[in-house]
Amino acid sequence: MGHRGRRSAASLASPKVQTLIMRPAPPDGLTDEQAVEWRAIVDRMPADWFTGETHALLAQFCRHISAARDIAQRLQDKRLGIKDLNLLLSMQDRERKAIESLATKMRLTQQSRFHRTKSTGPAGHAGLISSTRPWEG
Q1: Which residues make Cβ contacts (< 8 Å) with residue 23, sequence separation at least 6?
Q2: What pLDDT is recorded for position 2?
Q3: 130 pLDDT more than 90
Q4: How many whole angstroms separate alpha carbon 23 and alpha carbon 41?
Q5: What are the tens digits of pLDDT across the range 102-121?
Q6: CA 10 to chain centre
Q7: Contacts for 22-30 with beta carbons within 8 Å, 24 or more apart?
Q8: What 3-state DSSP class applies to 56?
Q9: Which sequence spans correspond to the domains of the chain?
Q10: ∠ CA(35), CA(31), CA(89), 5° rounding?
Q11: Which of 8, 58, 105, 123 is least surrounded by CB atoms within 10 angstroms?
Q12: By the 8 A CB rule, do 35 and 64 touch?
């Protein structure tokens, strides 16, 4: 049985060709722990999220995450003196800042994906800022 009536332009157009996008493999030079982190991040994002230009940033991001975990593990030692504790906490803060900066640059954070007109807050209102002022009630 055929199609009745005129055919739409969309139905006359050539079929869409789907391209298989391979997710990037961890680069050489990452440790096993860092490579696991790489795969976990890459697998959570759309397949085309990480282009070749971002691979160096992502590799460094994975290194910083690994370093932050190592520092956190060392902070668990109850025998640390105040100087060692202060040094490790300073190192931990530097790693946090680096992780935060790289995550934002690669648009991995909620902040970088937020769009005021599309997001709804806990009360179901669009955006973070209400359009009415509390005193106008």
Answers
A1: 42, 43, 47, 50
A2: 64
A3: no
A4: 11
A5: 999 999 988 765 666 665 54
A6: 35
A7: 22/47, 23/47, 23/50, 24/50, 24/52, 24/55, 24/58, 26/59, 26/62, 27/55, 27/59, 29/59, 30/59, 30/62, 30/63
A8: helix
A9: 53-109
A10: 100
A11: 123
A12: no
- Residue 17 buriedness (CB in 10 A; 0-12 / 13-18 / 19+): exposed
* 3-state secondary structure at position 120: strand
Token duo for residue 76 = 């668990």
Tokens of 130: 């209400």
The whole-number pLDDT of residue 125 equals: 46
**CA pair distance 85, 87, nearest whole angstrom:** 5
Q: What does pTM read for this prediction?
A: 0.71
Q: 127 — alpha (psi -120 to 50), left (phi > 0) or beta?
A: left
- Rounded Cα distance, 67 and 44, in Å: 21
